[in-house]
Amino acid sequence: MRGSQDLLRLVLRVDGWSTAVFGVVLLALAGPLSPLLGLPVSWAVPFGVAMLGGAAALGLLAAFPRIPARFAVMAVAGNGLSAVSMVALAFSPVLPLTGLGVAFVLVGAVTVGVYAGLEYAGLRRSRAA
Predict the structure, then answer these.
(1) DSSP tag of 94
(2) What are the UniProt keywords, alphabetically (predicted)?
(3) Cα–Cα distance between 81 and 69 in angstroms, integer?
(4) Of the candidates 129, 93, 89, which has an alpha carbon nearest to the alpha carbon of residue 109?
(5) What does the pLDDT look like over 103-121, one tens digit per residue?
(6) What's the CA gap between 13 and 124, in Å, rounded?
(7) HEC states along 19-31?
């Protein structure tokens, strides 16, 4: 039974660790990145904190002996919503993003979207087993 969740568990762990690293980078470099990306520190810091919270939740979820499907669905939905929100944010006038900032946010959206797709595939595989 555990083997059927290997892909899901792996993707959740990688997602969690990469989210944590990215959150730390946003927190540590919010000031220096602000003029390059056009992402105000007042936005970067809360994003970084939220990412650390999300990373902790993903890590906890991956550590379950049997990953509950409802929590895996929430991870997929959260990543999907994040990807769509990031694309919308990149093209909205809400933030004064530079061209590099738009590219940065779009790369983040693609990355999060890939995680959502891989987690969905892992969830389907575990449900089929």
Answers:
(1) T
(2) Membrane, Transmembrane, Transmembrane helix
(3) 18
(4) 89
(5) 999 999 999 999 999 999 9
(6) 17
(7) HHHHHHHHHHCHH
Q: Tell me the pLDDT tens digit for each residue of 42-77.
A: 999 999 999 999 999 999 999 999 999 999 999 999
Q: What is the DSSP letter of 38?
A: -
CB 12 within 8 A of CB 62: yes
Tokens 């990031």 correspond to 86
* SS3 state of residue 108: helix
**Average pLDDT of every residue of the chain:** 96
Which residue type does 52 have? L
Tally of domains within the chain: 1
| Phi-psi category of residue 95: left, alpha or beta, with phi > 0 → left and psi -120 to 50 → alpha | beta
Q: What are the structure tokens assigned to 66, written together?
A: 């049997």
Q: Are 115 and 17 in contact (CB under 8 A)?
A: no
Domain that holds residue 53: 2-128
At 2 the pLDDT is: 56
Going by the DSSP 8-state scheme, the letter that residue 95 receives in this structure is S
